[in-house]
Amino acid sequence: MLKIEAVSEQSLIVYFGDTIDEAIAANVNRAIFQVRRELDDVVTDIVPSYNSMLVCFDLNQTDRFDIIKRIKHALASNAEGLSDSSDNVVIEIPVYYGEEVALDMADVCEKTTLDAETVIKLHSERQYRVYAIGFSPGFAYLGSLDDAIVMPRKSTPRLKVPTGSVGLADNQTAIYPSSTPGGWQIIGRTPLSMLDWESRNLARVNVGNRVKFCPIDKQEFLAQGGVLNDSEGK
Fold first, then answer.
1. DSSP characters over 67-114
2. pLDDT of 33-59, one tens digit each?
3. How far is C-alpha 191 from the chain's CA centre?
4. CA-CA distance, 149 to 102, in Å (whole number)?
5. Contact between 122 and 146 (Cβ < 8 Å)
6. Ranges for the Carboxyltransferase domain (predicted)?
């Protein structure tokens, strides 16, 4: 399913489906490069999401009717062999799952009827696709969780979630790149900074990348610059 809708005078959104799906996400990722390859002279920005991409364009170079026609032509072009290496990039993220930082682990264990060791194992044994980056700079939405640890958001969000917190919400997991309000169920924390000020999108990870969480102990967490003070997340 391909649907194109205007968002503003200088932007439109291209829908590839209406579900969170690996195949649809791959189509979005491939389409980004098809459009950039064919329309680089008029496109000013592309923002991908789970099943769509927002395309911003230079109104001095084109108009809505022309760019829709050109986007359809670009997406119909031969995409064989067209990709970057993002789908093959696996980024390992160290995570400390200790009780000092796993602010909601007890609630997760209660709701799932699993012990903390099993929750950690299920969370860290698979690779997650980066479906989208949003909410705040560098905040990557990763999916999908093992069904056994799918969790609803907190009924009362925290006013501040500590930087580096790793959380669960519905069938997704994510890392808070900065201290912001949030309602995800926090089960650990990474010592790594998820913001990369040298990159184009400020994020350590890009849409299409794979993320693998690697459990570390308290000593390693502190050695890598991790901070245990969770007062801001209480």
1. HHHHHHHHHHS--TT---SGGG-EEEEEEE--TTT-TTHHHHHHHHT-
2. 889 889 999 999 888 888 888 999 999
3. 18
4. 15
5. yes
6. 2-205
Angle at 169 between CA 168 and CA 174, to 5 degrees: 50
For residue 113, CA distances in Å to 100, 107, 143 come to 21, 10, 22
Beta bridge partners of 167: 174, 186
Alpha-carbon distance of 150 to 61, in angstroms, equals 46
Closest by Cα among 115, 152, 159 to 167:
152
Q: Is 9 in a helix, a strand, or coil?
A: coil
66 and 182 in a single domain? The answer is: no
**50 within a domain of the structure (yes/no):** yes
C-alpha separations of 229 from 10, 15, 43, 161, 165 in Å: 45, 42, 44, 11, 12
In a domain, 81, yes or no: no
Q: What is the DSSP letter of 154?
A: P
Q: Please count the structural domains in the chain.
A: 2
In this structure, the answer to whether residues 123 and 187 fall within a common structural domain is: yes
Cβ atoms of 26 and 38 within 8 Å: the answer is no
- Report the chain's mean pLDDT, rounded to a whole number: 89
What is the C-alpha separation between 129 and 25, in angstroms, rounded?
9
Please give the single-letter amino acid code of residue 158.
R
Quick: pLDDT tens for 173-217. 999 999 999 999 999 999 999 987 766 666 788 888 999 999 999
* Full domain range(s) for residue 37: 3-76
